[in-house]
Amino acid sequence: MAAVSVLGAGSWGTALAILLNNNGHEVALWSIIEDEVNLLNDTRENKSKLPGIHIPDEINITNNLKEAILGKDMLVMAVPSKFVRNTANLMKEYVTKDQIIVNVAKGLEDDSLYTLADVINDEMPDNPVAVLSGPSHAEEVSRNIPTTCVAGSKDHDIAKKVQDIFMNSDFRVYTSSDVIGIEMGGALKNVIALAAGISDGIGFGDNTKAAIMTRGITEISRLGVAMGAETQTFAGLSGIGDLIVTCTSMHSRNRRAGILIGKGYSLQEALDEVKMVVEGVYTAKAALDLSEKYKVEMPIIREVNEVLFKGKDTKKAVEDLMIRDKKIEYKK
Ligand SMILES: NC(=O)C1=CN([C@@H]2O[C@H](COP(=O)(O)OP(=O)(O)OC[C@H]3O[C@@H](n4cnc5c(N)ncnc54)[C@H](O)[C@@H]3O)[C@@H](O)[C@H]2O)C=CC1
Ligand SMILES: O=C(CO)COP(=O)(O)O
């Protein structure tokens, strides 16, 4: 058994802390927000994000970062992407180089255009860094609904350790060495989910959503491969698997925000309504910047940016996607 800390007590951090506790590990759950820690300790429930799910008494819920880090074998970073650098920066005072850092957040850093594993590496260069990603809504994982994920590390032994620590009969974990592919799939599917939600919110049908998902994974894999990822990863759990769950589930924060925007809500109104982090909004701009940097065409991601940040009419965005130049899907 291992000693593990989960950093970030939102829906995903809470669900993973419970899973790790159920796996028999010694678990701490840290949040930077003192009020959040007090509420979780008082109620042993994350009422606003995972209502009805009991947080076992053995989990040490703490606001003390030093206490959360010291003596742990693994540190799981479950804070939203925009807080990853600052959290990693705070952590480095206490981490020792044998501790494995596992990133479970999905996003990109907007200025540097770094993936989150790269941000963590940048802050804690001596630590082994892994990622865990896949179609895995906290609402279902916390109810032990069968789920599959992939643990990625360039070092197979590290990926295997992550697999061993997280896996149980309801949570199946594969390993992969394609870290960049896993991260790009996880980050960019959120932008495509916004588009799928917008289409649903407008009242378009299943045909439209299937088109967005299929052309969406093409865009994601085109950029990912240009950045060094393996094509095959985008056909896997962290690619098409996560895209399917995000574009079709009512648990999806990104899809829900998209639906509201498609119905005419402003971006801010949609974010206020969803309450939890909508990562696609933060990733959209970085994805567009990366598409320009790598000279990769990403029309759906471009239109999502137009709608989110330039107030473009959602129906006009879809129309502009439909009347683009004629293209070949495949030619031998
Ligand atoms: N919710 C889910 O089902 C899944 C979420 N993820 C990813 O996990 C990450 C976290 O998502 P959620 O748990 O859904 O978010 P959330 O919105 O439920 O939780 C956010 C949490 O971040 C922490 N936080 C807030 N401000 C902070 C700050 N300034 N510094 C450090 N920590 C702060 C707090 O503990 C807060 O509860 C995201 O990148 C998301 O894409 C990945 C897989 C599943
Ligand atoms: O990444 C996630 C599930 O795999 C969570 O993001 P969404 O809630 O937008 O689907």
From TrEMBL:
Catalyzed chemical reaction(s): sn-glycerol 3-phosphate + NAD(+) = dihydroxyacetone phosphate + NADH + H(+); sn-glycerol 3-phosphate + NADP(+) = dihydroxyacetone phosphate + NADPH + H(+)
Positions annotated as active site in the UniProt record: 189
UniProt GO molecular function: glycerol-3-phosphate dehydrogenase [NAD(P)+] activity; NAD binding
Residue intervals of the Glycerol-3-phosphate dehydrogenase NAD-dependent N-terminal domain: 4-158
Organism domain of life: Bacteria
Alphabetized UniProt keyword annotations: Cytoplasm, Lipid biosynthesis, Lipid metabolism, NAD, NADP, Nucleotide-binding, Oxidoreductase, Phospholipid biosynthesis, Phospholipid metabolism
Binding site for NAD(+): 8-13, 83, 138, 253
Residue numbers binding substrate: 106, 253-254
Protein purpose: Catalyzes the reduction of the glycolytic intermediate dihydroxyacetone phosphate (DHAP) to sn-glycerol 3-phosphate (G3P), the key precursor for phospholipid synthesis.
Name the UniProt record assigns to this protein: Glycerol-3-phosphate dehydrogenase [NAD(P)+]
Organism: Vallitalea guaymasensis
Highest classification ranks of the organism: Bacteria, Bacillati, Bacillota, Clostridia, Lachnospirales
Gene name of the encoded protein: gpsA
